Amino acid sequence: MNPSKRLSGVAGGGRSRPPVHAPEPLIRVGADFEEEYPGASALATECFINLFRAGDLLLDLHDRQTRADYQLSPSGRQVLAVVEGARRPLEPSEIAEHVLITTGTMTTILDTLEKRGLVRRMAHPDDHRKLLVDITPEAQSIVDELLPSLHARERDVICAALSTSEQRAFLGLIARVQQAAIQASAKAPIRGALRRRHAPRLAVEEPTV
User: Fold this and answer.
1) Does residue 160 share a domain with residue 109?
2) Same domain membership, residue 60 and residue 94
């Protein structure tokens, strides 16, 4: 018998080590994907859509906790975190820029937060046509409880999946994808790509009554 085969899967003390199965991505495309879409890459599409899915799953963890514990929307949480992190009152347009929403949507969110006593609007000291937004002591208490909890969960999730060295490598890979996406945003979409459609689906007859 080949010694290498005899010793495989055996740990110290002669105890068998259970096989380690790498998890599969949640979303896979069909085996004929590149045949149907000649200009595509099955592997690239699986990376793209699974990156989206991972982001959705991670955000949902934070969003569900925020709603359950503090009855805050994701945008409401972000607004409080942005203003608290700035350590000074901000103009609504500044907050909107950080949260990546329109100023109109920001007005609605601030109205809701103000009714709950979590933010207050005040006159701008240098331009009375503008307003500044600050968080209240009640909002500060929420942020002081919520943010440490969210960041601790981030640690648990990521460290359960990746070692420290893997996390550093992952950040480098994510940075490259982010840069490619930024560059792609300045280019025109790829139009005119081909699709070889499958045979049409068979019609299903309606049951007679």
Assistant:
1) yes
2) no
Give, rounded to a whole angstrom, the gap between the first and last alpha carbons of the chain: 70
Q: Supply the range of the domain harboring residue 65.
A: 26-71
Same domain, 56 and 147: no
114: in domain: yes
Q: Return the residue matching tokens 């569900």.
A: 64
The pLDDT tens digits for 160-200 are 999 999 999 999 999 999 999 999 999 998 888 888 887 66
Using DSSP, state whether 97 is helix, strand or coil: helix
Say how far apart CA 93 and CA 106 lie, in whole Å.
8
Whether this model's pTM surpasses 0.90:
no
> Is 82 in a helix, a strand, or coil?
helix
Question: What six digits make up the tokens of 200?
Answer: 């049409």
